Amino acid sequence: MPKCYASAKGRSAGGRRKSPSDTGYFEAKKSEKKFSGFDFAVLTSTTHGNPSPALENLDPEIGKKTRYFLLSKGTNNPDRDSSSKKPTNRKYVSDKSAFRHKGELLEINASKSGIYTPVLHRIIDQLGISLAKHRRVLVIRFDLHQKQFTDNNASVTALRKRLTYQITKLYGKTELGYAWAREQEKAKAQHYHCAIWLDGNLVRYPAKLLKVIRAAWADIGGHVPVIKKPYYFIDNQTTRKDAIYRLSYLAKARGKGHRPAQTKDYQTSRLKP
Q: Which is nearest to 36 in space by CA: 2, 83, 86, 84?
């Protein structure tokens, strides 16, 4: 980086010796083109800040430090290629067909866009808590489509609460594990990929709960499409791995991020071991 200091020996047009503030001003103006994309500020004894030692020089004539502080404009910087900016959280995306979770290698549906690894870790952890408590676990997969875009996830939260109430009414109080992912691509409104899981000894088939889900979502004008093999009855390692492969689709990277900053792309239950 070029040194940013001015000689104190020069004089102004009027013959008077240039003051430290004059010196800093003229030298900063000369350097503007060299530091395109930055604003300059001269730091004197009356200003505050701690710039890098590389940007301060001691003037032997005036015995004071003249400091120059470069302020990035953040925009209109011709030397910065905006296309090089990495998408948010891309460092957590994996496109591998195998996924290691706590030492266990699992086959996943990474798809072409890859999956967000923190999301999948969370889903597997929550499913594992249920499997540690129950010999059998019923997993139900379903999707939720809606006609209108919303900048929050209030509708899917309301559905979950209604579903919890109905499960308690039908089967008694039981823990409900869940995960959902919000996505939007070419459609005008977002859609949700969802899964719930609960004690398989208590609930062995998904028909009643799917009926509750369809009725509740229809009340807000939404649609629950029919999907192939909407449930897994986990009672061994084979069906567990099959279910994890299916649930990994919720963590796919494609379609995420089309929402306000404060709105979540996904959510899971918070079951305790």
A: 2
